[in-house]
Design goal:
single chain; 475 residues; 48% helix
Length: 475
């Protein structure tokens, strides 16, 4: 479907179908609650206010209990059964005193039996719906379930393809967040290895979002890194998901250098007093609720304020399931805070797929000789092997992903809309294209402005010539 409006209307109909009947029925129960407590000569205002207050308190307690305790503890299926049981019990307590005949008592018993039957036969949420959300209809019977879990903040899943059991996906909020497919592994490794190679003195790292742990695990092979702080809002993800990708993420969750912080990334970055040599962020698509806050000018300013001198920050930007306006907004907002920023590309089937934005606290230098020398060291053998696994055999291969600088892309970004906390414009721009796959065209448009970074590259003439050929020989 080319137009988003059809999908928006379809989503609205789905929401009405799922929520409206229950909302109407629960709303209709309020007059019955008033009738149950009404007495002759009672002040109607006080009575209505008291019932309304009780209803409000109950709604608050129920929302907190189910979201923080019951759903994480027993899942939505059993939580729905419990809610059905509570509602049935409440109805019986209200109606039994006025049941004055055997027929009425039998009717109440029959209603209770029907409620018990409905609760017993209540099915679990289909795994494909948890994993793929709105793409559920055409994903049925395409994956095998490895894990499903409902946490305090997110519902997550791990699956493997039926067509290829070696391919595993991690899903959150009905969307693939990470996988061990080639294009995703290359992106996740690039997010970690690129700043680690460009910042040879890096000792402290902040990773925003655990995902499958591959980006965080990219720092494990670097011996100079002494501290890796990982900020993740959902505790289930590091504890459970990491085990399904342990071979890809260097078993990072159990590395003694790692400190897990379970917090909202914005809150943690804003409140921590610690500064880092590297900060890397791999959020979900900005059209997913809440994700656009990790692409705002204010967030990037907070990130920059928590960089040590010489520090490096990397940020993931999707080109797929997006559009020109959204990508321009993401890149322009980042460059406004990091005016010396650069773009680094990741390809899939020979076309652009997503990109990594790289910003620095100080002017950037790409020292090819120094990077190759580090990769040749014995204590960097694991880091080199990880890079080779995703197609990077040398510093030239890594730096050949260069997609342009802020200065190169200035003409292209002239009409870009800056994403700020005041408007979160990006989530609306990105929301126009959740099913668009024009990443190749967007990336080619970016590359049309790219120039060789003569002012950034340091190294022998032979290596610089090789890098130039690698960049422009296979765009």
């Amino acid at each position: 479907v080319s137009s988003p409006w059809f999908l928006f209307q379809l989503d609205i109909v789905r929401c009405l179908y799922a929520i409206l009947p229950a909302a109407c029925l629960w709303g209709a129960s309020f007059p019955f609650a008033l009738a149950s407590v009404a007495t002759e000569g009672q002040d109607p205002g006080r009575m209505v206010g008291g019932v309304y207050a009780a209803n409000t308190v109950g709604a608050i307690v129920g929302a907190l209990a189910f979201s923080l305790l019951l759903i994480p503890g027993m899942g939505t299926q059993n939580s729905q059964r419990l809610l059905l049981g509570i509602a049935t019990l409440a109805a019986l307590l209200v109606l039994y005193p006025i049941a004055r005949s055997l027929r009425a008592i039998l009717a109440l018993g029959g209603a209770a039996a029907v409620a018990a039957f409905l609760g017993w036969t209540l099915s679990a949420v289909p795994f494909e719906l948890i994993a793929y959300g709105r793409q559920f209809p055409w994903r049925v019977n395409t994956v095998n379930e490895l894990y499903r879990g409902e946490g305090m903040n997110s519902t997550i899943a791990v699956s493997e393809l039926k067509s290829d059991a070696s391919i595993r996906n991690f899903h959150v909020a009905g969307k693939i967040e990470a996988s061990n497919e080639a294009q995703d592994m290359r992106l996740q490794r690039l997010l970690g290895n690129l700043p680690a190679l460009l910042q040879p003195a890096a000792k402290s790292v902040l990773v925003v979002g655990f995902g499958a742990g591959v980006t965080a695990g990219s720092f494990v092979p670097f011996p100079d890194v002494k501290r890796i702080v990982i900020c993740e809002i959902e505790p289930l993800i590091p504890r459970i998901v990491s085990t399904y990708f342990a071979s890809e993420n260097q078993n990072v969750f159990k590395d003694p250098r790692v400190e897990m912080v379970y917090d909202d990334a914005r809150h943690f970055v804003r409140t921590t007093k610690e500064k880092f040599d590297i900060i890397t962020s791999d959020p979900i698509h900005p059209w997913v609720k809440g994700a656009a806050t990790l692409y705002t000018r204010e967030y990037f300013e907070q990130v920059r304020a928590h960089l040590n001198p010489g520090g490096v920050v990397t940020q993931w930007v999707p080109l797929y399931e997006s559009n020109n306006d959204a990508v321009k907004s993401e890149i322009a907002t980042f460059f406004e805070v990091f005016p010396n920023g650069t773009v680094w590309g990741n390809k899939y089937n020979g076309e652009g797929y997503d990109v990594v934005l790289l910003g620095t606290a100080d002017p950037l230098k790409l020292d090819i000789d120094a990077i190759d020398a580090r990769l040749a060291r014995a204590d960097h053998a694991t880091a080199l092997r990880e890079l080779v696994d995703v197609g990077f055999r040398s510093a030239t291969d890594v730096l050949a992903t260069f997609g342009g600088s802020a200065r190169d892309l200035a003409p292209w970004l002239r009409d870009a809309q800056i994403n700020s906390d005041r408007d979160l414009r990006l989530q609306y721009l990105a929301g126009m294209s959740p099913d668009a796959y024009t990443s190749g065209a967007i990336y080619n448009e970016i590359l049309s402005f790219r120039r060789f970074p003569d002012d950034l590259v340091v190294g022998t003439e032979a290596r610089k010539a090789a890098l130039r050929a690698a960049i422009f020989g296979s765009p």
